[in-house]
Amino acid sequence: xxxxxxxxxxxxxxxxxxxxxxxxxxxxxxxxxxxxxxxxxxxxxxxxxxxxxxxxxxxxxxxxxxxxxxxxxxxxxxxxxxxxxxxxxxxxxxxxxxxxxxxxxxxxxxxxxxxxxxxxxxxxxxxxxxxxxxxxxxxxxxxxxxxxxxxxxxxxxxxxxxxxxxxxxxxxxxxxxxxxxxxxxxxxxxxxxxxxxxxxxxxxxxxxxxxxxxxxxxxxxxxxxxxxxxxxxxxxxxxxxxxxxxxxxxxxxxxxxxxxxxxxxxxxxxxxxxxxxxxxxxxxxxxxxxxxxxxxxxxxxxxxxxxxxxxxxxxxxxxxxxxxxxxxxxxxxxxxxxxxxxxxxxxxxxxxxxxxxxxxxxxxxxxxxxxxxxxxxxxxxxxxxxxxxxxxxxxxxxxxxxxxxxxxxxxxxxxxxxxx
Length: 420
Ligand SMILES: [Zn+2]
Hints:
Low-confidence stretches: none
Shape: globular
Number of domains: 2
Mean pLDDT: 91
Structural class: alpha/beta
Number of strands: 22
CATH architecture of the largest domain: 3-Layer(aba) Sandwich
Number of helices: 11
CATH class of the largest domain: Alpha Beta
Largest sheet: 8 strands, mixed
Bound molecules: zinc ion
Strand content: 25-35%
């Protein structure tokens, strides 16, 4: 990080800490309890002494108690539909929205977007905040934006063709769904104008990236959003696509071991923790996003020197505990890849029978497996069960199914279905 950036961050951080102490009773109580005086904050490393903010804190302060400005200065309010507890409410002042548009415009420009582009933004309701952010950035550049909020993949593909869309923005699982449906339509993929697909809202693998790129003959980019922080473009992939660039003028980013909460070294998995530096309506101090990444060493050839990480690997709260054994779904994905040679989609079903916790693993039939004989498939299935047992010490029943049969929520394939 450059000296100038460090200085800018320190200046902004001091202002934020003083402001939340003054304006947000939650932070005043928290800082008082820890005997922290923001006036004494003198170095970026002093942030280590400050407590974290969690999703639960935002839920407890539903709807407006985390806001640092009076409601009359808030011009947009967005709520997430949480699966448990109260929803999380994010607010934006006029200035916040201007920054949101700037951050998105910067990210989209670095992916090559210009005013000549036609941008189809397709998100379901839960990702509206990202949709608005990306839309404002694309409009700032002067591109033509088509916002869409329905799911039907065939209709979506028809619009992609008819409107000569050059840029599609959606979730990775939705893009995979479109890729699956494309051959069932009479659309010739070569006739499509789409040249870039921007994925946002979930983690995806390099294997999934190349599958989508192949089907659509387009380049796939990663855009990272945290609804509670900013609808979109907290970090993004530039045209070099070497990893996520964080917009550090606006966010102070820490990557911490989720257990010890100490900084991780390069090439180690850590949780992204963000302190907002410029947000007015909802400033957050050391917000634990739950998203896991690996810090990358070296610089991106684009010349941008801000923090570079891998794409999101998964979520901290996805760590599962079965019969007292803890594992992350990404470990299961890795074992599947090692055993079958393919990065196949999967779904973990957890349930209880006769009082015992049990696991069934559904795995999508990949192209090579699909063409194999039943006896061949059986061999792979048995080998997979063996590997899973050796690696995780848990008996897991494996079943191959077709991709379209997976249980979905809002179009997303659920990685875990917990019926315990
Ligand atoms: Zn770059």
